[in-house]
Amino acid sequence: MADERSAEQKKIDEWLPITSSRNAKWWYSTFHNVTAMVGAGVLSLPYAMSELGWGPGVTVLVLSWIITLYTLWQMVEMHEMVPGKRFDRYHELGQHAFGEKLGLWIVVPQQVVVEVGVDIVYMVTGGKSLKKIHDLLCKENCTNLKLSHFIMIFASVHFCLVHLPNFNSISSISLAAAVMSLSYSTIGWVASIKKGVQPDVDYGYNAKTNKGAVFNFFSALGDVAFAYAGHNVVLEIQATIPSTPEKPSKGPMWRGVVVAYIVVAVCYFPVALIGYWVFGNSVEDNILISLEKPTWLIVTANFFVVVHVIGSYQIYAMPVFDMIETVLVKKLKFKPTWYLRFITRNLYVAFTMFVGIAIPFFGGLLGFFGGFAFAPTTYFCRFLTLFPCSASLHNVACNI
Description:
Blueprint: H1 7-15, H2 26-37, H3 45-52, H4 54-78, H5 90-98, H6 100-137, H7 147-161, H8 171-195, H9 210-227, H10 234-238, H11 250-279, H12 287-290, H13 295-331, H14 338-358, H15 366-384
Helix pairs in contact: 2-8, 2-11, 2-13, 3-4, 3-9, 3-11, 4-11, 4-15, 5-6, 6-7, 6-13, 6-14, 6-15, 7-13, 7-14, 8-11, 8-13, 9-15
């Protein structure tokens, strides 16, 4: 199919973060997906298990792994379901399924809530982990720094990193983040085994009333949905992989996804099951808080968390930058210049930082965001994109 874009349009596409580079390898898909999915949410899985209980908890974890792998496969297949066209962005697939305007209204608000919400959560998480390191290492004659100070320290890193232009330029950061996620997850369950089952362990529900138990149950489902989030950037990751009719991008992308999901299983199941087994319903909402000793190990784990959320922040921020820059350049006719990118990206980091400082309990809203936006865009939004098949015979999606 001939490229009908004008020279100006090609220049803009080569400048935008998602479409500027298409030379990624299959393993880029692996560590980008691991970084996007295995976030700080893995550390809250034992707490989610305490609100779900053994039977429902194990069932939800396993079904979530299976369902999200299936819906991710759907996205990989639909990336190039129309010959000669690539759905480089999540909202483009939504527009194909629901129409130009309705598709935007259905997909973009949820995607923005997910990506901006995750970045704010990671801003707070990074600050909390830095504060935990400070508190563990500095016992006497230390300056009393507030959480807001550590959030600003964490944000200062991003004021530099956000100026990397596209996904491929942050591949080394994403690789480091993926390694860190596997590392601190391993520390979480190994240290739990070392600590041993607590003598007063209780596997019953903390809630004293049936209403409280039901509320906690659904909140835990939201936490699990947050832990399995990552589909919101899948199409954007696949857009960086080269594609030809003979060798479409879905081949290497799917290979990377399979490896990523093996890593997800290695991270999630031991942490969730062993953490709950050791601490029962007394486990904290972050397993590292329940593990206070040995100090050096917990400091190391928190440092790994900091490195990981640095990479995760960048992964989720890149599609937001692409949306902002697309609107500014294509709709508002700004010139695609470095200072336009400098201003907009710095303002975004400042926004997430100030929200994180103003609402340090933002992580407590994970259950809400998990149910409101993470679940629709991760678990079942893909099924909806298949519905137009019955009405549109030309839709190639009907063949998959």
